[in-house]
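RECORD TYPE: inverse folding
INPUT: structure tokens
STRUCTURE:
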């Protein structure tokens, strides 16, 4: 019997660290949720062995539901990666739309230029009002 690999030694973690578009955030979220479901199922099974009979049945049901959700999440992880890969391939096959030409001519024809000065707080204070501490620093 081969020993079970430690959590950090699973080869699928390398796929998430690779410089590729898939698997991505959606797949990683599904894997994380599936891991949570596995932990819930484990805790429910352990608790079900020690619980009173009336609670044991509920814990067995909870373990079954956690297993069902875990299976669904694993399938969603696979589907997410596959759909995203097909979408990326479709976009690449279609090509990018042509870029708009850069504006030419004198700067006045390109439109307004952005302001070069920084914003500063107003120097006025409302009459008859008590100024908050931040206004006192400005004046």
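DESIGNED SEQUENCE:
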């Amino acid at each position: 019997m081969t020993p079970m690999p430690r959590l950090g030694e699973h080869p699928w973690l390398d796929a998430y660290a690779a410089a590729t578009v898939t698997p991505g955030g959606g797949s990683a979220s599904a894997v994380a949720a599936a891991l949570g479901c596995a932990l819930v199922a484990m805790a429910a099974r352990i608790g079900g062995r020690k619980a009173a009979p009336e609670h044991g049945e509920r814990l067995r049901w909870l373990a079954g539901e956690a297993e069902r959700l875990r299976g669904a999440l694993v399938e969603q992880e696979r589907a997410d990666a596959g759909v995203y890969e097909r979408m990326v391939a479709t976009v690449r096959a279609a090509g990018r739309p042509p870029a708009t030409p850069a504006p030419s001519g004198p700067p006045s024809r390109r439109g307004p230029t952005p302001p070069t000065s920084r914003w500063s707080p107003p120097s006025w204070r409302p009459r008859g009002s008590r100024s908050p501490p931040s206004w006192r620093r400005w004046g």
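NOTES: DSSP finds five helices and no strands in the chain.
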